[in-house]
Amino acid sequence: MAREDAPRDSYHLVGISFFILGLGTLLPWNFFITAIPYFQARLAGASNSTTRILSTNHTGPEDAFNFNNWVTLLSQLPLLLFTLLNSFLYQCVPETVRILGSLLAILLLFALTAALVKVDMSPGLFFSITMASVCFINSFSAVLQGSLFGQLGTMPSTYSTLFLSGQGLAGIFAALAMLLSMASGVDAQTSALGYFITPCVGILMSIMCYLSLPHLKFARYYLANKPSQAQAQELETKAELLQSDENGIPNSPQKVALTLDLDLEKEPESEPDEPQKPGKPSVFVVFQKIWLTALCLVLVFTVTLSVFPAITAMVTSSTSPGKWSQFFNPICCFLLFNIMDWLGRSLTSYFLWPDEDSRLLPLLVCLRFLFVPLFMLCHVPQRSRLPTLFPQDAYFITFMLLFAISNGYLVSLTMCLAPRQVLPHEREVAGALMTFFLALGLSCGASLSFLFKALL
């Protein structure tokens, strides 16, 4: 809850601004992977005059450069790198420079991606430029995301929830933009150009929202560069989070990232009779307590990124060529995954099962490895080794439903359980460790996707 003397968020403008900022942080990744068929068609040598953002060829475009795999790997490695470097970077570069600089860089790089739609070039050169853009865009996105989370730490928890809700809808937004682009009926170049201009507009809106924050009294009150006030507000936010917990469980997964120890920030002289505060928590000791939960998080993302989108984007409809076969992958792969993943993450707001002491969690996580062969045995035309055992569309849709909802639920569950396995003053270290292992799982999955695709 906000302080009694805090101004009101008039017309919820600050909340809307952070929602749009959350949307903007994950738009680049989602717009790149959703447009995989467009990139594959360009890399296969199709001319701009015949390339559609999603190929109508029933067998799908050939992935000559392993674009699926490289775009995933070069999107996740920057996240892992900047997770390791964030402490050094955030101390050396001012917050405003990090946020505005990252947003402007992402905007310019996405404008380049949109401009390339109209430029004829060799597939090899196009691949090199696109991969460089992917790497730089995701590097700036990692810096942007970490910086905005730092700002949210000084605000009421509602704004963290709004920010994360915006992030959760980025994938759905990208899939819907793809479907609208395909259904527009315009020529191929205009369709692709409109698709890539959409995230540019989203990033531009994010810049405007960030620039508007200093002009809003509510935002100025919480984000003012006054250490004492910022610390007081951060302490209050943490108190609100902890008061809303039941049995030590934050009542929403978004709150876990902000749930830290209040005892470390109490004034020691205010309670002279209390025992001394605990010392600085040991990273090794905290890791010993949460290693199994952290391993589960790594394995969940390893499975997910090893097949999505590298394998799942190659699955096509087994029906006759037509409208359904054209819209099959955007709907049944990208849109369905993002909706069910968001639903799975939301379930932990209502219950947490299994708990941190149960050995059922590792079993459920390991069972997700079954999705790897299941997707590899679906209707993927470009295969030379494995047979197709699940040709019907219903199989793929069923697998994707279970795959996506289990990903969202288990990711959110592990992030919720980790703080419960450590002492209160160790929760901040536990959160930092879980963030590192999240990035590690994404990178491991992206690396494994090369092997699984080669086995097809």
List keywords for this structure.
456 residues, mainly alpha, Growth Hormone, Chain: A, 15 helices, 0% strand
Describe what this molecule looks like in 3D.
The chain has 456 residues and is an all-alpha fold. It has 2 domains: 10-243, Growth Hormone, Chain: A (Up-down Bundle); 258-266 and 280-456, Growth Hormone, Chain: A (Up-down Bundle). Helices cover 66% and strands 0% of the residues. The chain has 15 helices and no strands. The chain has helices spanning 13-34, 36-43, 67-92, 95-115, 123-152, 157-183, 188-212, 217-223, 227-243, 283-307, 323-347, 360-367, 371-376, 393-417, 427-455. Helix 3 (67-92) crosses helix 5 (123-152).
Annotation, overall tally of beta strands: 0
CATH architecture of the largest domain: Up-down Bundle
- Largest beta-sheet details: none
Question: Could you state the CATH homologous superfamily of the largest domain?
Answer: MFS general substrate transporter like domains
> Could you estimate the helical fraction of the residues in percent?
55-70%
How many alpha or pi helices? 15
Whole-number tally of structural domains = 2
Could you name the CATH topology of the largest domain?
Growth Hormone, Chain: A
* CA-based shape: globular
Q: What is the N-to-C order of secondary-structure elements (H for helix, E for strand)?
A: HHHHHHHHHHHHHHH
Given as residue ranges, the uncertain stretches (5+ residues, pLDDT < 50) are 47-59, 225-274
The percent range for strand residues is under 5%
Q: What Rg is obtained from the alpha carbons, in whole angstroms? A: 23 Å
Look at the helices and sheets and give the structural class: mainly alpha
Distance between the termini: 53 Å
